């Protein structure tokens, strides 16, 4: 896992969008990755809540990295498609995207993810978004 | 349409994320809205291409505004869910999200969208992402 | 729950497709419904396994009935949309669709479901399909 | 195309579910396939309309065969996942599923489909369902 954690951390550091969104890598375990994002008005939709696109961005990355922990040797991972339900407005001071691998085959991985909204100093959360995604393992070009 | 165009433009101006992504409203017609976004390394995924989340953000907004042009009086629109396929890496100098209403009922609208990638000075494009989305009309609180 | 169980059972009995597929209602709890379906060559795709459409049919019904257990009084439920991943061929002697409510609001419910494949006399199963669905509560016409 | 048409027709004839649903292959062109299905109470949901699962089954097959017309030599096709929106009740005397390839890569194809409902003797139709699907090309085992 140490090698995978380092690989995920280096990969995450290259994602300009994660930096732009203020996102941080919080946990990398076998088949599960967490990414956090603090609230910012720079991420808002028209009502001031966090835009579905920002919510989706962090849970897509969390799902992708969860899949990467199960990638065959010499393979990277890219998103083939995802579907996200938005169950309530993304209101909170901090958001945590949790991505998990449900099944990893030779060429495809199926992942599920959720985004949790926290208010200040709270350990309780509300799930604001639910993702089901298909990732593709692609051989690393050398 | 003039009233709707103004309403969409004002709504768009309140979306902090669109500003953060460098996105601009390009066209508002009945049932169809276009949003552009120039390439920036601040939107990148690990390979330097535009992140699926940024691509999704602009086409979600385009679909939502397309739906808004068909909203019943006194109603706003929010995204219930969307599904996006990523057909090739989002490589380009400029991206255009095209959102269209397929069906608008009393409470739900179904929209489809695509994101087109353009290279410099080109009129030709490649479709990098395809969205199918469900939007909900919500009565405006007063 | 007894009233809801009866309502679900009566509703299920009216679904001609469930009868055609050989499906049976197995469990109705608050927010969770199970539907079983034995293997039959009448449900096959080209390789002799169960067709994705049959698999989807039972998990759609399971999700819908799970949502129905949370419907506001005087409301029925219909499927707005679903997304299903097929993780492995639907090979087995018996299939069980498990539908669960993740979130039920005033007008929409988000459900997840899975279809489990069992071989003869086995208690072990493999998950062959994963669904994420949006259901709409509609006022019963009187 | 003649060889592909014959391959699709033979493959379709092996799908037990298509026979069970009363479905028929109507058109096979490069990248586009049509499948029809007459109304039957054996396909119904609780209100007597055609069940979302039956609607989905024919458009899944139509999308799959559309993808098959673009499969690399020596490859079959299976459904990785699909997402279907149901825009209105499936009321009609005859249904036609239209599946089209949007993009075919080396390992994946993205397809879109719709299901049209016709009343008796009518050439006009209403689109009752919209699909966006991901298909996988798999090497034929020999």
List keywords for this structure.
alpha+beta, six-stranded antiparallel beta sheet, homotetramer, 43% strand, 3 helices, 142 residues, Thiol Ester Dehydrase, Chain A
In the CATH scheme, the class of chain A would be Alpha Beta
Low-confidence stretches of chain A are: none
* Amino-to-carboxy terminus distance of chain A: 23 Å
**Corresponding CATH architecture of chain A:** Roll
Kindly report the spatial arrangement of strands forming the biggest sheet of chain A: 1-2-4-5-6-3
Biggest sheet record of chain A? 6 strands, antiparallel
- Mean of residue pLDDT values of chain A: 96
Helical residue percent of chain A? 10-25%
Number of helices of chain A: 3
Number of E strands of chain A: 6
CATH homologous superfamily grouping of chain A? Hotdog Thioesterase
Q: What percentage of amino acids of chain A are in beta strands?
A: 35-45%
Encode the helix/strand succession of chain A as letters.
HHEEHEEEE
Question: How many separate domains make up the residues of chain A?
Answer: 1
Q: Regarding quaternary structure, how should these chains be classified?
A: homotetramer
Roughly how many Å is the radius of gyration of chain A?
Answer: 15 Å
Can you tell me the CATH topology of chain A?
Thiol Ester Dehydrase, Chain A
Largest interface: A-B, 39 and 39 residues
Helix-strand makeup class of chain A: alpha+beta
Global morphology of chain A: globular
